[in-house]
Amino acid sequence: MASQVEAARPDETILRYYPTVEQVRKDVEAERRDDRPGEVEGRISGQYLLLAEVLESSWGGRHGPASFVVQTPEQAKRLCGVYLDAGAESRTHRFPVLQPECSGRTVEEQNAKGICARVSYMTAQPIPLKNSVVSIV
């Protein structure tokens, strides 16, 4: 009979290595300050979502988000919520307006121009993972 081994969950002390939302913003802005318009905000938002996903998958294990809620320490749940809230805030309040010179063009044409903030923002977003719900309004 084959035995099933499940990986150990991380220790709560690991949470001290996770950056604050302010530190994420500061680091991405410093590293990517020369990017195209809108891309920095997209990368910041994407980083928040990535950090939340890492927390969720670290404690959720093979059972996904449902087990995350059950078996995760409160501090990790709070931190995950902070990242998700920051990502939502970034997508709703920092989503670039459509520029007149980009209106009516395909995404490929906008990418080629390299000045269209909205398409740069969306390009910098991570691809949503299978259990994540992400929408850009």
Fold and architecture overview:
55% of the residues lie in helices and 0% in strands. It is mainly alpha-helical. It has one domain (18-124). The longest helix is centred in the middle third of the chain and has 22 residues, at 39-60. The chain is elongated and about 50 Å long. Mean pLDDT is 77; it is low at 127-137.
Helices, strands, pairings?
Elements: H1 21-31, H2 39-60, H3 65-71, H4 74-93, H5 107-113, H6 117-124
Helix pairs in contact: 1-2, 2-3, 2-4, 2-6
A few lines on this structure:
The protein has 137 residues and is mainly α. The protein is 55% helix and 0% strand.
Which key terms come to mind for this protein?
disordered C terminus; mainly alpha
Quote the average pLDDT.
77
The number of helical segments is 6
- Indicate the low-confidence ranges by residue numbers: 127-137
Number of domains: 1
Topology order in helix (H) and strand (E) letters: HHHHHH
